[in-house]
Specification:
Length: 287
């Protein structure tokens, strides 16, 4: 999980670099197109090409549309703001997923979990506080859109996993993102500077593929409550990459708000771990 988060963070920095020369939708297309050969190669090597057929096509299409909007808004966010600031807001996603799981998945969330969700959202509001007299920057607004669309995409993924295979979901995500973002990018398409950007485009595909495979291995090898906390190391990578590439340092509000969000997220994960242990112990978890 640690290596997976590092790969995704490096990939995001490459997307930010590409967004300096190309529209967000075109960068989203390049992200999917560069990953497709690696996704197909992994499925073929594992001998699972027979499992790529989609079952719930409507839900695939919904998830594809959410993914296009999510990646477009995320790329727009990192173009307008720093990686660390975007990550800080985006790290509220597990809390938002927990809240959305109540109406959409009919899951139960106890009072302690609602408290963690409220605290985490307050951390996001803290990061959106006034900077230079302005409450909301363009980057923060795009990050909020990315946060909501990502959370909705995760909930739709949970629903889709009830009928479709992992191979179908991964390939469907990549294909629909490539087709959707590619078509929408056509009106504002910019010629690709292959000599300058080929290494970045290939890097996006390679880092994205390695990260996706490693995160799959991580969640297959250990309980989600054990693996998930390591996802918060993305904040450290965001700060390091911002400083190393763009010489940008996080603000105090960003660091404090991120700490609140991460703390709430870790509390939520710890509660899920205790609840998962209830069947084994036979003792009810307190709220």
């Amino acid at each position: 999980m640690l290596v997976s988060v590092a790969c995704f963070s490096v990939m995001d920095s490459m997307l930010k670099l590409l967004s300096e020369h190309y529209p967000s939708l075109q960068v989203a297309y390049l992200r999917a197109a560069s990953s497709l050969p690696f996704v197909l190669a992994v499925i073929a090597i594992r001998g699972r090409l027979g499992r790529i057929r989609p079952v719930n096509i409507r839900l695939h299409l919904l998830r594809g549309a959410l993914s296009v909007l999510m990646l477009y808004s995320f790329i727009s966010a990192v173009r307008e703001s720093s990686l660390a600031t975007t990550y800080s807001i985006f790290m509220c996603a597990p809390l938002l997923v927990a809240a959305l799981s109540v109406p959409m998945l009919k899951e139960k969330v106890v009072s302690g979990q609602w408290f963690a969700i409220a605290v985490g959202l307050s951390g996001v509001l803290l990061m959106l506080g006034p900077v230079d007299g302005k409450w909301l920057s363009a980057g923060s607004l795009w990050a909020i859109v990315a946060l909501w669309t990502y959370a909705l995409a995760v909930v739709s993924l949970r629903l889709l996993s009830r009928t479709d295979s992992t191979e179908s979901m991964v390939l469907g995500f990549t294909l629909l993102l490539m087709i959707g973002a590619g078509l929408l990018a056509l009106p504002g398409w910019q010629p690709i500077h292959w000599g300058r950007d080929l290494a970045l485009i290939l890097g996006v595909g390679i880092m994205g593929s390695i990260g996706q495979n490693l995160i799959t291995v991580a969640f297959r090898s250990a309980p989600a409550a054990v693996v998930a906390p390591f996802e918060y190391t993305a904040m450290l990578w965001g700060v390091l990459l911002d400083v190393a590439i763009w010489s940008v340092y996080p603000s105090v509000l960003t660091l404090v708000g991120a700490s609140v969000v991460i703390g709430a997220g870790l509390y939520l994960i710890q509660r899920e771990r205790r609840q998962a242990a209830v069947p084994a112990s036979g003792k009810p978890a307190s709220s």
